Amino acid sequence: MAAHNLSAVLKEHGNAVKLLRNSKIGMYVYPVVAPEFSNWRNEQVAWRKSAVLFDQTHHMDELIVEGPDSAAFLEYVGINSFANFDLNRAKHFVPVTPAGHVIGDMIIFREREDKFVLVGRAPTANWVRFQQAVGKWKVRLTHDPRSDSRPDGKAIYRTHYRFQIQGPEANKIFDKINGGPVPDVKFFHVDWIKIGSRRVQALRHGMAGAPGLEVWGPYADKHYIQTTILQAARDVGVDLHLVGSRAYSTNTLESGWIPSPLPGIYTGGGMLQEYRDWLGADSYEAVGSIGGSLATDNIEEYYVNPFELGYGFYIGWKTDFIGKDALLKMKDQKNRQKVTLEWNRDDLLKVVASSFEEGVPYKWIDFPQPNYASTNADVLLNGKTPAGISMFNGYSFNERCMLSLAVVNADVKIGDQLTLIWGEPQQTGKTSTEPHRQAEIRVRVSPTPYSRDARENYADSWRTKSGK
Amino acid sequence: MALKNLEDVLKAAKNPVDLLRNSRIGAYVYPVVPSEFSNWRDEQAAWRKSAVLFDQSHHMVDIYIKGPDAVKLCSDLAINSFANFPVDRAKQFIPCSYSGHVIGDGILFHLEKNNLVFVGRAPTANWIQFHAETGKYRVKIKNDDRSPGNPKGKAVNRISYRFQIQGPNAWPVIEKLNGKKVPDLKFFHMSTMKIAGQKIRTLRHGMAGAPGLEIWGPYKDREKIREAIIKAGEQFGLRQVGSRAYATNTLESGWIPSPLPAVYTDERMKKYRKWLPANSYEATGGLAGSFVSDNIEDYYVTPYEIGYGPFVKFDHEFIGREALEKMANKPHRRKVTFAWNSDDVAKAFASMFAGSDEHYKYIDLPLSNYASASFDKIVDKNGKVVGASMFAGYSYNEKSMLSLGIVDPNVQLGDEVTLVWGEPNGGTNKTTVERHKQLNIRATVSAVPYSKFVRETYAAGWRTGT
Questions:
Q1: What is the 3-state secondary structure (H, E, C) of chain B?
Q2: Which ipTM was obtained for this model?
Q3: Residue of chain A nearest B223, judged by CA positions
Q4: Candidate from B29, B39, B155 with C-beta closest to A431
Q5: Using the beta-carbon criterion (under 8 Å), do B349 and A39 form an inter-chain contact?
Q6: Do B155 and A431 touch (CB under 8 A)?
Q7: Which of A89, A304, A353, B313 has its CA 20 to 30 A from that of A230?
């Protein structure tokens, strides 16, 4: 009989690491959006030098949580404090397991006293849905999963469109689309603006210190909103670039958010066993993939805690939430820290050159996005000693550098040189990997966010705070 | 004033070269098909080592030609002979301009009596449609345009799906699907087979000596047929090929998909230019590369130059015949493969890690073209232009950058030439072009198709370090 839930899938494969490292799902795709609108180099440059339009309509799950218990429910599920969570604000919502491991993260918008919208990868949406299903909260959920990774000519429907307008010249566009000055909204606050004839919600966002906006509304309005924004940019003479799916996911290398922690749900009894029974055999957790040189039998080596990702200061210690006891214990231990790694050019070019030589090459490094799985885990060594895991890769044409985001041991210092093992020790079943050798790539430990612009101009936030 | 047709567009532009070299249309996209099913390296390896499924349902125009004059119309436009073109036969259809320059090419299928379909890029389909509409032919035309480059999540519909099953294991896959032996036909002959209980039309095709088939049918059956092929192909290592790898197949087989249609000059073509809409391929397409001339005719090619000399048959009247008769016995430039020097290619990659004014034009792998038509100049030791590179990409099978192009008659196989990569003066205004410097890349003039040549003749070249 075919496995019907994650527990059964795990039983069939014997080991979670084996299952995920041999997943046949293929690349983690940023779907529907065209690969390039102009070219990925200029699209990257535009977010640093002029302005960009990110189309975020398709690659994230959306979960609406409504009902009288909504706030209490979500405060219990996530680590965040809701103390100052006024209406029309957004937060970066992070749930952990009872053992304190990160499940994932989503942006959470408070639309009403009793209504929240969550946007992000599937693991957090699934966990929230499970908590609602097994709890006794007076909440109602509406789940809109991400768009099909390979629509192959079929029509795609979402509940909402979602755009971000970002970059140093983005603000010049806002007044134009609004037909007057936009309200002065604080970072991660929401207000209503006008885009042409439509009234839309806008989240004050920002990159590298420059104000940006995230706007969303009914999917049917998408074309109108997009053309209105593009026209406004032309009218005010801003070189606004649409960003395609190739460049899109590399933006975070410069800003420092790790999009793809492995949900820490494959081990543990009690609630976690129940969760694995609840999760479908076709869920992200069951079909997703792990790529990279870290190959151990112990799936827990792929888990991270919120302190390691820089989310420690979100924690609302005053209320009760899932994982609180575990986090209390972790709080004062020596946690790993999030850093950016700058890859050594010569070592990287050696990898590229191997694709032009006879014999088995090193693992292909795709530009600008070399990831080849839903979750990436590459071994970092300090000499011969394990020093951490590199978790998300990308080339930045702005920095003229290959970068990755990583968690490294507490004793690793900015400026240290580590070795990143690139490629997998043995051929896995993943369809995204060709036969290859492993390469050693020297990497220099650098701050997060990496880019000088982002580092110096970002609002003081989780991106800049260390894990301790 | 709104520009209505190509003639208007050309009048408004300084120069056709300038217009096309600064087109804002973006990359020439192979639409709808996912960029990778597994990964493009393994997908390329599969067409050499096991079997592949090409999904050709979206990137080509299908133009259906029906009526008692269907064959006559095509014959009047083609350099090809129609002397032996019964039903269930296909041919590589090549029309030329009055001056004997290539408009384009593609496959013409004789589906049934008085019923043909041409499948290929827009320039040839447009040319057929123009003559069907303006000439005195008893034909009806249905132009089924290629799928949109960016479907934006909207449903895409075509009249037909179109697949190819290719590679050394293609025939076992085909026979497994058919449930019994499939008689091998001659190249470009048509027949039928069974897939998922359905009778499917087939065109005998092939790659690198191994027989394969092209199959087609109503678009609504596409998924059912594909699923059956994937299932049957499992034991034979069949891989679906995504849009990133797809177009690079031709680098190993040697067909140049993208000659610039010779429609921008010549009074005799003026009526056509007035017919071609301002949003046509010809008016909006991009032209890329280091070769820059004020004269658009310098980008035209003759059928002799891109390997179609044997197709030219003076057994019938056709547009361009007079011009081709005059040039037939003269020396011609000829089609070759350029094998790029890997050390020089590495320089382009190294520049991605250098200062911003040190950047060479990015070489995207595996398909490196950055416009609808490419023209990079090929120069000899003395700096003299001796050819052009017209379609470029990387072959994982050959572990080399390859490009297809043309060289002067006196250039020999094995000669080392220089391919100038990138555009002068920092690059044009094409959206696909970031500011860059030009790079001289050494290339070895090699045969077409490339792979056989490498194995048999070129084992001891610079590629092997000897």
A1: CCCCEHHHHHHHCCCHHHHHHCCCCCCCCCCCCCCCCCCHHHHHHHHHHCEEEEECCCCCEEEEEECCCHHHHHHHHECCCCCCCCCCEEEEECEECCCCCECCCEEEEEEECCEEEEEECHHHHHHHHHHHHHCCCCCEEEEECCCCCCCCCCCCCCCEEEEEEECCCHHHHHHHHHCCCCCCCCCCEEEEEEECCEEEEEEEEEECCEEEEEEEEEHHHHHHHHHHHHHHHHHHCEEEECHHHHCCHHHHHCCCCCCCCCCCCCHHHHHHHHHCECCCHHHHCCEECCCCCCCHHHHCCCCCCCCCHHHCCCCCCCCCHHHHHHHCCCCCCEEEEEEECHHHHHHHHHHHHCCHHHCECCCCCCECCCCCEECEEEECCCCCEEEEEEEEEEECCCCEEEEEEEECCCCCCCCEEEEEECCHHHCCCCCCCCCCECEEEEEEEECCCHHHHHHHHCCCCHHHCC
A2: 0.94
A3: A152
A4: B39
A5: no
A6: no
A7: A89
Chain B CB contacts of A353 under 8 Å are 342, 346, 349
Chain B residues in contact with A433 by the CB 8 A cut-off are: 39
A348 with B41: Cβ contact below 8 A: no
The reply to whether residue A400 touches residue B33, judged by beta carbons under 8 angstroms, is no
Q: Do B350 and A41 touch (CB under 8 A)?
A: no
State the nearest Cα–Cα gap between B310 and chain A, in angstroms. Answer: 35
Residues 210-229 of A with CB under 8 A from B: 223
Nearest Cβ partner for A353 among B29, B149, B346: B346
Q: What is the pLDDT along chain A (468 residues), one digit of tens a residue?
A: 578 999 999 999 999 999 999 999 999 999 999 999 999 999 999 999 999 999 999 999 999 999 999 999 999 999 999 998 998 899 999 999 999 999 999 999 999 999 999 999 999 999 999 999 999 999 999 999 999 999 999 999 999 999 999 999 999 999 899 988 888 888 899 999 999 999 999 999 877 667 899 999 999 999 999 999 999 999 999 999 999 999 999 999 998 999 999 999 999 999 999 999 999 999 999 999 999 999 999 999 999 999 999 999 999 999 999 999 999 999 999 999 999 999 999 999 999 999 999 999 999 999 999 999 999 999 999 999 999 999 999 999 999 999 999 999 999 999 999 999 999 999 999 999 999 999 999 999 999 988 665 555 544 444 444 433
* Cβ-nearest to B352 among A42, A364, A400: A400
Interface test with A, best of B152, B397, B464 (most A CBs within 10 A): B152
Chain A residues touching residue B349 (CB < 8 angstroms): 349, 352-353
